[in-house]
Fold:
Amino acid sequence: MGSNASIMLQQEDLQNICQQTGFTTKQVQRLYSRFKALDKRDCGFLIREDLLCIPEVNINPLGERLIDVIMEDYGENNKINFKQFIFLLAKFRGGKAKSLTTEFNTRESKLKFLFDMYDRNHDMKIDRRELLDVLKMMVGGNIHDDQIATIADHTIGELDDDGDKSITFEEFCNTLERIDADDKMSMKFLS
Amino acid sequence: MMITTAQVFTIISIICAPMVGIAALVLTLAALNLSLGIRRLYVQLLALIFDYATKIKRDKEISIDSNASSDEPPTPLPPSTAKNKLAPTLEKKNEDNPAEKTNSSIHSFDRRSQDPLFNSALLLLYNSSLRDIIDCTRQGLEAIVDDDVTKRFTSAEEMVVWNLLTRTQQQHEYFSMRVTLLWFLGFCVRYFILFPFRLFLFILGVLWMLGSAVFLQYFPAKDAKLRFGFYINIVLHRILSRVFSAIITIHNTEHRAKCGSICVANHTSPIDVIILSTDNSFSMIGQQQGGFFGMVQRTLSQTANHIWFERSEAKDRHMVAEKMREHIQAHNNLPILIFPEGTCINNTSVMMFKKGCFEITEATIYPVAIKYDNRFGDAFWNSSKHELFQYLILMMTSWAIVVDVYYLPPMTIEEGETSVDFARRVKAAIAKQGGFVDLEWDGGLKRALPKADYKAEEQRKFYEMLKTE
Structure:
């Protein structure tokens, strides 16, 4: 075990993280154990394969896309360390009560994460191609490409308010309001 | 000062005498299946010490916590799981490839209709598919935070009461002088007193095994050989169980596996075999190895009929099943011991039972649930973390292995039941008795990724939803 590996969670780091993310110390410790359990090579960061070998993520149709988002947007060089990991997860803390909200788990940030699941070129718009990609991942080989394309076109037709043939973040949020998306994206963290 | 030969001999005999005495004592106890009750007292004493140490630790923790700012109250509820949580439902899947099914209902999307009803239906469809996409995303994140499977392949989570072994602590923080002193004392006791003693017993066990093999060579009559072999085997395993300071409590001995049957148990560690063999003798089944292990296998074959098959035969499931069937049908053959999970699981759950041995319809299955008490030593073998040898050393330097063995009533396959369903039924019975979580996931996931079929199944479900809307 090198000096980099099995980084113990120092007290100051712990306090820092708790303050910024709003997690309790026990929650952070539990997430740290989880991080270490996933980090099988014991090198202090996770790579794609570490996350991909969780069976429930592996069989999830959006599993790979989810890992893409995590690695590219929240990690660097295809690696994610514990700090990045926990700041990512901090977004999904339930935050209805005022006291529980920090700058991380706002409604905006949850919806933005969902938006990022589609918008991989980060141009703040979901175009036809990106919508198609996600739909294809969900149905796999079960529908022909032109049939999905039709669904995608109709969807854009419906949601596009400003006629630019793509969905902006604002238009996206408007749809999601109807189905209470930020509530659905909140997770309960055990302590 | 010169040490004379006489003095050397005196010294050696002084050291040897107690050793010989202990050896004789252990052998007698093992043979007669008696116990002096020392191990149980020892374990009770340990429990008191652990409680004391944990109390100190908790007091320290409370003082630290009260200094920190008040946090969110701990959520007592388990993480919310959506009703359609991803789980393998592959066995129920239709064998036909759904992609090849021609579906006529999809053409409804080709309608370039301006019908407002159609548009709102589409919006509804989009909303519900969006809901699914959101659910999938959240389930993926939840699985990253905690999933049912990966935690079965590592030692169970940190215990409430710390048992003074650094290996069970996530982070060794310096709590107090007293606890560290206790730990150090424990370390010395375990490595310098208990370990040599246990090693000695282990050597004794090996000698017994070799001696008995030689002894049995001279028995011409096969029947007598088998009867003696049975008894010798049990004594051997009783000696070996003392090597790990195993405290075994057997429940429901009336359901002990009989000759000509199959005994099935959950698997946590290689020690399972030793523990079960203290009460009953079994036929092993496995691949014929070379080298030292191969010699052990041949030695064991002297005392009983085991099923060893060649590497080439191992791939052929029918051949294996045939051999098992033959073995069972000979009435005085020992019960076959099988661990259908195929790999070691950490004793909190029971994973998918491979259907191989359940396909033998004539066999009576005697299920056994093995439940370890983690407080005195974690018996789980994490083969990706420790080699077998390292694991055995860890076991020999733990406090003790406390285990409850529950024999369950025999089961046979029912009319019209498939072997998969039968396997599931037996698994459920074992899970219920041992208080384990009953999981459908394959133990093979320890090393391999799930089959692509499972993902295809999830995608098919989404497609079905799209179709019906």
About this structure: Residues 145-159 of chain A form the longest helix (15 residues).
